[in-house]
Design a protein that fits this description.
There is one protein chain. The chain contains four helices and no strands. By secondary structure, it is an all-alpha fold. The chain has one domain. Helix 2 runs antiparallel to helix 3 and helix 3 packs antiparallel against helix 4. The longest helix is centred in the last third of the chain and has 37 residues. The chain is elongated, with a radius of gyration of 18 Å.
């Protein structure tokens, strides 16, 4: 994919500064590893909670970087609507699911200790 199509094809990307191909590749690696972690978590109950928690941490940190960019004035406040489907919703969804998973795991541990 040519760099110009990446830069022109993603809403809000041109506002964040000049294209840095190395940075784009770095971010691609992070998203790839995150996706692999989710695939492993989908099929491995033993590793599901820690892998999903790591994934959630990435999405939350990514969201907070975007919030900081708006608060600091580097990006316009209206960028929120552009970022909503790809930044804020994934962070909110994974955080919500993670809380439910932690509660479920905690309940299982409590039940196990109760019946032991």
């Amino acid at each position: 994919m040519p760099a110009t199509s990446l830069r022109n094809g993603l809403s809000g990307v041109p506002e964040s500064g000049p294209l840095n191909v190395h940075f784009v590749r770095d971010v691609g690696c992070i998203f790839f590893i995150s996706g692999v972690g989710l695939l492993i978590a989908a099929f491995s109950i033993e590793y599901r909670l820690p892998l999903f928690t790591i994934n959630t941490s990435f999405y939350m940190m990514h969201m907070f970087v975007h919030i900081h960019e708006v608060i600091s004035g580097r990006l316009r406040p209206g960028i929120f609507w552009t970022d909503l489907p790809g930044i804020y919703l994934p962070a909110a969804i994974t955080m919500t699911l993670n809380v439910f998973m932690i509660k479920k795991k905690s309940k299982q541990i409590d039940e196990h200790q109760f019946f032991s």
